[in-house]
Amino acid sequence: LGQCGITSSKTVLVFLNLIFWAAAGILCYVGAYVFITYDDYDHFFEDVYTLIPAVIIIAVGTLLFIIGLIGCCATIRESRCGLATFVIILLLVFITEVVVVVLGYIYRAKVEDEVDHSIQKVYNGYNGTNPDAASRAIDYVQRQLRCCGIHNYSDWEHTVWFKQTKNNSVPLSCCKAALSNCTGSLTHPMDLYSEGCEALVVKKLQEIMMYVIWAALAFAAIQLLGMLCACIVLCRRSRDPAYELLITGGTYA
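== Tetraspanin ==
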């Protein structure tokens, strides 16, 4: 590869170790974002195993911080043992992120079935006079996603809450945000959100899972480049007796 190639590899490797620290923070943020968002929609999504990709990606983010520290020390001192350890750990993390991507796609495909299975039960359990956690979740989703009912506002007519209130109206969370005098009455359907919540909840949860997938793919590619550069440095050190260390005082260990 020539001296130019080995110098470039060392420079890129130092730069990548700094990226690993930034990546650690970003991955932990993505994982935390998934947890926070899941908490808002957990009544519509009963399979807690869907959080496995988020748990793994937070663990990977924490490990990347340690990897960045090991990589910086190993690269600057150019320790053969340190670089070899660095490559092995990166390989394990790379495999883990591939697993995250696979699980992400599996659970992303299950989102629609999960929501379809649970959303009817959640709406039937709505109690507007004494809101419980499920009721608050419905009101939150309807306001945030600007939707009403499962497929449309008419779905409320089949709920226990609607039959008990007997006022021919839907929850105020169905009212369009721009209207201050909306009472939720079905006699004024133009005041209500027309789109159902099921499709929007599915879309939101699938988008969140895609954040995890893309984050894992992006940093897996960076780690692959890191492994390549470290391997180039290791191979050149082993074969070239005239190899020069990046800094004076480095070790050949």
